[in-house]
Amino acid sequence: MANREVELLAVGAGPSNLALAVALEELAPGLARDSLVIERDQEVSWQKGMLLPEALSQVSFLKDLVTLRNPRSKFSFLNYMHAIGRLDQFVNMGCFVPYRIELAGYLKWTAEQLSQVDVQMGRECARISPVWTNDTLTGWSAEMTDGDTIRSRYLVVGAGRDARIPEPVQGLAPERVIHSTEYLQRITKLRKDFPYRVAVIGGGQSAAELFCAVQNDLPECKPTMVMRSIGLNYYETSKFNNELFYPSFVDEFFVSRPEARKQMLKELHHTNYSGLAPGMMDSLYRSVYLDRLNGRGRLEMITTHDITSARDEGDEIVLELTDWRTGAVRQLRTDLVLLGTGFSQEMPRMVRDIAESIGLEEVSVTRDYRMVIDRPSTAACYLQGVNEATHGIADSLLSILAIRSNDILQDILTHRAAHPENTGPAHIAAAR
């Protein structure tokens, strides 16, 4: 496969591109057979760093890859549970939100059920370059880390956002800093009998999960949770707020004025960020309460503090914390830093590199998630999961996957119909 041409290349085999692959198989089998999904990992995985045994999803099982678009699809979460013989048990739980590990299994199963879309694992994309023909963008050339090249007319980027690493800790020894996306893979490599001093950074669900998990994974550790907020808060989860996660709300959000979008995102912040699920909040408070009751002094929480600097000093890390209320500065000496700091709101590096390669000063998309290209083009690039600023708070979540995949697919089909002479790998090959 040193050089291969396909009509559609999707980068990343996460929920977004798997939903698109399902839509392709159900609605456009011809295009499906000329589509390829690549994934850098060796297997389909989802939030593998945080697949903690008791971690629940925050989204209903009905908001899977397909049900809101096609309730009768064989690719539904319920059909997955039936296929593995656990549907009775799941129904008996009486809960709309499955365990995170169940959703991860569902995504892997879905990839295995695809019969027309080609999904290839262990395929990491090093760079993507535009293909030009007489000053017209006619395709994309994706170079793999193994030197192979895949050319396509349509490109769909669904590789997720980059992890957010706070600037003060970026210079620390990497073996002492673990972002939540790598937690399970790396924590298992540490000694269980060592009394690590652990700093957990963040005040949201991920940080709380890290704070609880590390107590079991490193039984002798002493964890300290550091946050800039005045305290931990619940997610705002009223049913009225949840209506703003409907796929239909994307239309309302997209046509709103830019300043109105910013205000809505600000007001909706606690529906998805800087908050804890009720079960996690209660469990966390009980553990802190019992620690105080028993006089152990193992668990500590530091609120209203920013990390203003950090350094490696011998065998330990020294964090400088500044209380934003008083300006007072204190030091926290620790052995390990866990980051529950989420993801950068900046466009991922891959997307920025693509935009730069075609001369775009900024990245913007249409309502149907197509990158706006201000030059003649018969090719297109679509962005999944990175358009919160224009498409609303649900854009990075599972809530809109089924409908978004249909939006993208229908736009591709319309675009192909408008340029039938440029359809197919033969045209891309000719543009070399």
Automatic annotation (TrEMBL):
It comes from the Bacteria. It is an enzyme of class 1 (oxidoreductase). GO terms for molecular function: oxidoreductase activity. The keyword Heme does not apply. Keywords: FAD, Flavoprotein, Monooxygenase, NADP, Oxidoreductase. Its cofactor is FAD. The keyword NADP applies. Pathway: Siderophore biosynthesis. Belongs to the lysine N(6)-hydroxylase/L-ornithine N(5)-oxygenase family. This is L-lysine N6-monooxygenase MbtG. It comes from Kibdelosporangium banguiense.
